[in-house]
Fold:
Amino acid sequence: MLNRFHIHLGVQSRRVLRVLLAVGLAALAPRLAAAAPPPSERITDNLYGTRFLNDDDAWVVGAFGTIYRTHDRGKTWQSQASHTQEPLFAVDFTDTNEGWAVGRSGVIVHTNNGGDSWSAQPSQTDHHLFDVDFVDDEVGCVVGDWGTILITKNGGETWEPHSFSRDVILNSVSMVDRKHAWIAGEAGTVLVTEDGGLTWSEQHTGADKTLFAIHFADRQRGWAVGMDALILHTQDGGATWELQNGSGQTGGLEQVGAGQTFDNPTLYAVTVVGPNGYAVGEIGAIFTSSDSGRTWTREPVPQSWGVSWLRDVAIVPGANGMMVGAGGRRVAIADGRVDLPRESTHAAETPH
Structure:
């Protein structure tokens, strides 16, 4: 028979059990919180560069030293501390750990843990640096204004200047192996090296307009883009270049009035991987190719974009990637398809 003692003991036991349970949950809560993924952060800063490493892992960089990383193909983003307020114009990773970003006033930052921490590397220059490309964890190239060319063969521990003899702005670099690389820049400039950047020679493109990006898929096939919707293509390593879009000469038909229009936007970036090609630029311009960069089509974009710009594009062999630009804009590429918002669009309108 239960008596008051037994009843009291039962009540006390239940109280003790509740206390132990509460203490256990309190101790477990930090672990549960630590295991939960951090919430996605809203990106509103201008974005200038992006690098997709695989279908899921990517980084973007931009104004005020902005660096963000995604592990899930852009569904969520987490900021990373670059320890600089200078704008970062380009980023490159060789694997999920080793990465570099470059920017204004000679800034080069490096990570060896996927961006969990970034540290400065000595560039020995205060010139603005606009692009970076590495072929492996050791060999890379950086370019910038005043003809700046920096080469490293030890992962950026030291950077050696091999600058161009003329004072031109160099906007973009594309390396295909440790020996061969191309650079594009001001006034139609294209440079090539066959000795790992020790020496550079000019290639004749037939264009005198500024080129903002260059991309080589291999040692033979390359593309360069720039002012007035210019797209150039080579199939012989740059020995000859053909015009695929726009006009290569200042004063060409695509140059209307005093500035660009919706018909001739400046293009800032180009990439071709497998059959898929993309070029992006001013006024939200998007050009796509489905035949390995042989022909290009202008895509319609939302009218709400106005004069918003796209600054960079990156994809991986699986045809997944992203375009980035003004105000944190990010446009996903999934299975080769550009994922634009569903609203009224324009492709080539004249502003009023």
